[in-house]
## 1
Amino acid sequence: MTALPFLPDRPEMRFAPTNAASLPLWLCEGDVRPEVLTPAQSAWAAAQGFTGALGQLCLLPAEGGAVEGALFGIGSAAKRARGRFAVAEAASALPEGNWRIEGLSSDAEAEEAALGWLLEGYRYRRYAAGSTPKARLVCPEGVDAARLEIIAEGEALTRDLINTPANDLGPVELEGAARALAARHGAHVHTVEGEALLAQGFPLIHAVGRASTRAPRLIDLRWGESGPELTLVGKGVCFDTGGLDLKPAASMGLMKKDMGGAATVLGLAHMIMGLGLPLRLRVLIPAVENAVAGDAFRPQDIYTSRKGLTVEINNTDAEGRLVLADALAHADEEAPDLILCMATLTGAARVALGPDVPPFYTDDDNLAGALARASVQVADPLWRMPFWAPYEAMIEPGIADLDNAPSGGMAGSITAALFLRRFVTETERFVHFDIYGWQPAAKPGRPKGGVGQGARAILAALPEVLEL
């Protein structure tokens, strides 16, 4: 088994020592400049046309010509509300050295600035060296530097996994990444692979993955001996051709990211284990490749799932909900305190909310409220969508219990969520996230490419949700 490089050392994603000599980076809202500037520095900033506009940087020279500090524009509150991690942009623009941020107005602002700085340092370097930011941040006073570094590591793991193309990241390599994570934290991994999936009761995972030359598998990671039980289920479709309902080339181009749910739950698992949260963690990943071959599953095939529900296949490109169904049924058999499902599941979610805002579904109002509050607190957007009961009939084809791809093309994200909920009957609290897992264009703290969504909000909500 070939394992990916796991959480490589990234000094650019770590803070400078707290006692390190550093230069000041003054945050300026509009043209209001710090009173500590000398008249010469103020004149210099004016001569450079510095207005404090969002993202504007002005280096301040000392008398000998060396850099003595910098001004960074954060614009108006209205401008900042249009994005996240505004200060992170400075990390890539500043010259090499240690920097400290001056002018932060609250602990929450300090934490967002510090985390954004770390996330801005991420670069995917498996195939090309590339350049990385040279400016390092002295973590603001009162911010838990070690905690933020663990969160940034988890996000980097998620991004690395999503960014890796399918020729180097198939089901076996995804298992290798899970095993490397387990080894780091003293967790245990059990895998059911290939034909054993049928023998052990995972017919839908087997059906989706059997046409690939790389055997499908269910990866089962466990960690922790006490506390409430949290089960994370992540869609691990390492590449999705669409199967016999073949995708057009334009739709297949980003399908290396179809394991974004698995990548996100592994990144979240690293955060949970690295921070030592007092809970029992289980991670289930159905890892497959949806390929085309003589033994590929077909439209209008009907399979009996692990749950005993029969499923009619009306589109082989709606494979993610099939592999998740068996994994969710397996998770539900233990009735954990919370089951959380992550999947790059539907284009309908992107049409509704765009690439930045993943919808989530739950029947638990308290859980929904905790997630919504946490998403705002940690700048990790989420939006609740309904398990709309009147649409249940749309997923019932008549010839079988369930239809994996209802006709009509309406409410696609909701009907997919309703489909998944049918496989969770013993667990009181269940939440499903329909994520995108991709940053279409670079933004502060988020280079173009794979990106984690929802993990930081979940992490922030867990103490309330599970009463930790």
## 2
Amino acid sequence: MDTYGLIGFPLKHSFSAGFFTEKFRKEGIEAEYLNFEIEDILEIRRVILFNQHLKGLNVTIPYKEKVIPFLNNISDEAEKIGAVNVIKVLRKPGDMYFYELTGYNTDYIGFRDSLLPLLKPGIDHKALILGTGGASKAVSQVLTDIDIEWSYVSRSSKNKAIKGRVMSYNDLSQEVMSTYNIIVNASPVGTFPDINSCPDIPYNYLTTGHILYDLVYNPEETLFLKKGKEIGASIKNGQEMLELQALAAWEIWNS
């Protein structure tokens, strides 16, 4: 039986396991999907060696960037983004110790294809990206490619490790909030069970012209989205993005 799985830590809220298990059941696919909760990226070697039927992995927090040195190959889009969320595993028949790992980024596809329907023609869109982890890199690349000006928002605007413009949360004045009409939460803040938390932005400056997009999908409506909804902003969670990126991952694993 073919095996697929997810590496990350912690894995209290895995969308992928439920999605693929249901897909396998509905389509009569003889396969299993397992969660591999690893406390150190070095454990990826153990996961691959001890699961000889493993054909593919999803990668989540905090390993989307840390996994790159363990890959044999990386796709052009993943290299450009600097983060990987899908790994294809190729093995040499008869040699349990030989494997080849190729990294891809399907977060890009999921975010792009779920964001585009929200954009209104004729409006000058600008975006703030809350958080600077692996998922934020796919978000910023999509925005760049569709010609939307963007800025990261970090706890420190002096974070030299981040490429591109960076603001701190203290920089989010009324003028800034009125200029940037798309707010993307690319951080895990607000994820179950921490449902009473939300990114520290000035919600009182939001308007009905804002779009709030939360990569978090559990809960379905985070406090971040609730606050935007109360003001009349357009809101979207990360469910569709996850489904789109998962389907793209399936195509990669089976190509």
## 3
Amino acid sequence: MTDKELLPGNLYQAITTVIQLARQHVKQVVNHQMVSTYWEIGRLIVEHEQQGQARAVYGKQQLQQLSKRLTDEFGKGFDARNLRNMRMFYQQNPIWNAVRSKLSWTHCNVLIRIENSSARMWYA
């Protein structure tokens, strides 16, 4: 915008546009980072705790203990069910670069419920 376009009414509009664009960008960055973090948690659970197996040998108790420790330190979002979702998300998407960058964790959580991989990719 030029200085001539920044008359009192236009100045307000220009500032609100900048704020709205910044907020939109922040939401996108947060969503992307959240999905990336949850994918990485799923990877760690599968690869380090399960040695690549579909399920850990130690059973549900270990996941419950992990959930409690994470929740105590980081708050909501790390219950055993969500950790299982993170694990499933990683198992269905083992290549990070193949994950759609514009999807939120809520979208990913819905998609992991679709058993047919072709249908899942279509909906993504």
## 4
Amino acid sequence: MKPTTMPRILLVEDDPASRAFLTAAAQALPSVVDAASDCAHARHLAARSGAHDLWLFDANLPDGTGAQLLASLRAAAPRVPALAHTASHERADLDPLLAAGFLEVLVKPITAPALQGTLRRVLAQALAATTIDAARTDADTADAAWPTCGKLPNWDDAAALAALGGEQAHVDALRRLFLDELPGQRRAVAVAVVAGDVEGAGRELHRLGASCGFVGAARLAAAVRWLQAQPRSADALQRFDAAAGDLLAPA
């Protein structure tokens, strides 16, 4: 998914009324929704469309389960984020769905705003991961000047707007909070890495990476991912520190 294109969602729900509600709510993001009533139809739509940016599967379907459908589609599309939805509140039903590979399980009934908020967040995280992967590919061939002339911009406004429902005021407010917290997070990461505390650095980087996705901090997100992959690397720490410093530098 590119920041300038609408995301495409594969929705699978056998109940007609629920399918219509979920489709309308997802389309209002906005997004393109391919809606299926069972596993067979979902597989057909997945093969026909070529690519989806997110899967939203009912846990129980007339010809199988959401977990079975997820497993069957994973071979061709291993990185599409997947959400499950179910009417069950029981941990015995919810935990196996998470174990099967669904990022989250939405418990019905769910409101349109709650569904849309979850979809926006997951789509934004997927977009950020795609951007980070592209940055890592660039970094493989980049020279030692990466910290001061990275190819990614400091801010990806389109990604931030997509994550926050197109509300520029929300983007501005969240970025102010993000920048307020960044100095402390920057120090915590550096201290952990220098001390060899891989677990502690990982916790800080995980939190920071998620925040980067919401506010569209493209270059810092790439540096976070790089340092997560090489938590003992002085070069990766330098890249991270430079990217954070650029965001915090006076305009």
